[in-house]
Design brief:
By secondary structure, the protein is α+β, with helices and mostly antiparallel strands. It has 14 helices and 20 strands. It folds into 2 domains: 166 residues, Galactose-binding domain-like (Jelly Rolls, Sandwich), CATH 2.60.120; 231 residues, FAS1 domain, CATH 2.30.180.10. The longest helix is centred in the last third of the chain and has 21 residues.
């Protein structure tokens, strides 16, 4: 049991990972406030080090300012005497971070895993809010950490979460406690707090298609979605979560695979492949890693895990996470996830409807009526491409899609599309 709890905790910690965006999101910050920089010696006076010596340990850790105007947090971690941590933190101060929702940390590490710590004016003791800060040896990275993704902990144990009030943040720090003995070094250039208007794509009404198109790295995916007649779904209200293979990911497919998928006679198989990259609702990386897997609209269970310093999604590596759009979220990946069902033959149209209802009903009943409507919308679009569906049913589905998209109520959209799916299913069962 202890091991299982440890695994769950580790996944929760990993869920805090924020990967630098490939979409130029840093240029969209509406506002930012400098929290820490190290341009002169006075900047170092507000920092202090706290190591496991306070608990009898013998780890050594400290900090200094480099000639390049950065802070170097370094030392040697020891597990002796039940120790195993070293840290640096800012002395309590009024940081005035109200109105911000995300920290941005630019740092260069040694390949070890660090934490970013937040403490508050009324809480400067052993407990802190922590977020996972992975590093690649010798590589500078700018990492974004939303306050909502920090976990409250004390002595390495998670505590019940309490929402963070940014205005109360009084200290930012860094900790190494990865249970690996030996030297460590983390170089930090700056820490900033931002009101993250990467969400401005969402607020400005930019859909998944708009955001993917502006990124410039998903031309093949968008062309495939058009060929499968699923572009309308990705423009729809959603919400949906899309695993977006880059153009390079499609180029890795075996020779002739993509050309075969794009042929009209293989449209159903193409639909199956694309649906394997789509989930109902907004599934952030944090949620996916905590759940360990998510069910695609194709029916496959896609695993999410952290391994050897990277996040793996199925057999793909995650390149970028939590890119916001008005109708969902995009996660960029470096491989195309071909579902087993697509290799052995796509779902029959009746099975597709059954799967949509199997996925949609529990979501609807749990209160996510928009997520249910999104599942029904994707399924209705897919059915319209299937030759086994009668022309009358395709026309009925097309009308239902138009009516649903004109309906403001997500509940009504779900019912309109469900009625069309039920009618189509009845026609398939009767052979009409």
């Amino acid at each position: 049991m202890k091991s299982n709890l440890s695994n769950v905790r580790s996944l929760s910690l990993i869920a805090l990972l924020a990967i630098s965006a490939i979409f130029g999101r840093h240029s969209l910050f509406a506002s930012e406030k400098e929290v820490a920089s190290f341009g002169n010696d006075n900047a170092m006076k507000i920092w202090t080090s706290v190591n496991d010596g306070v608990m009898g340990g013998v780890s050594k850790g400290g900090f200094k300012r480099s000639e390049q105007g950065t802070m170097i947090f370094s030392g040697e971690l020891s597990l002796a005497n039940n120790g195993g941590f070293a840290s640096v933190r800012m002395k309590e101060a009024a940081l005035a971070l109200g109105g911000t929702d995300t920290l941005v940390v630019k740092a260069r590490g040694d390949g070890r895993t660090y934490w970013v710590d937040l403490r508050f004016a009324d809480q400067m003791g052993a407990s802190s809010y922590r977020a996972f800060l992975p590093t690649t040896a010798g590589e500078w990275k700018e990492t974004r950490l939303a306050y909502a993704d920090f976990k409250l902990q004390a002595f390495g144990r998670e505590l019940p979460f309490k929402p963070i009030n940014p205005a109360s943040i009084a200290s930012v720090g860094f900790t190494v406690a990865d249970k690996k003995e030996g030297p460590f070094a983390l170089e930090v250039e700056y820490v900033k707090a931002i009101a993250d208007s990467a969400a401005s794509d969402s607020k400005a009404g930019k859909t998944i298609v708009d955001v993917a198109r502006s990124a410039g790295a998903f031309k093949t995916l968008l062309s495939a979605a058009t060929a499968a007649e699923l572009g309308g779904v990705l423009y729809g209200e959603g919400p949906l979560t899309v695993l977006a293979p880059t153009d390079d990911a499609f180029a890795k497919l075996p020779a002739g695979t993509l050309d075969s998928l794009l042929r009209p006679e293989n449209r159903e198989r193409l639909v199956a492949v694309l649906k394997n990259h789509v989930f109902s609702g907004r599934i952030t990386l944090a949620k996916a890693l905590e759940a360990r897997e998510a069910a695609s609209l194709q029916g496959s269970k896609i695993p999410f895990r952290f391994e050897n310093g990277r996040v793996l999604v199925g057999n793909a590596t995650l390149l970028n996470a939590d890119v916001l759009a008005s109708n969902g979220i995009i996660h960029a990946i470096d491989q195309v996830l071909i579902p087993v069902k697509a290799e052995t033959g796509p779902l029959k149209s009746s099975q597709l409807i059954e799967l949509a209802i199997e996925r949609g009903v529990p979501i609807f009943n749990s209160g996510d009526v928009a997520g249910c409507a999104a599942i029904y919308e994707v399924t209705s679009e897919a059915l319209r491409t299937m030759e086994c569906v009668s022309e009358d049913s395709r026309n009925a589905l097309a009308k239902a899609l138009v009516d649903a998209r004109a309906e403001k109520s997500a509940r009504q959209r779900a019912w309109i599309l469900r009625a069309a799916l039920d009618k189509t299913f009845a026609g398939l069962e009767s052979g009409k």
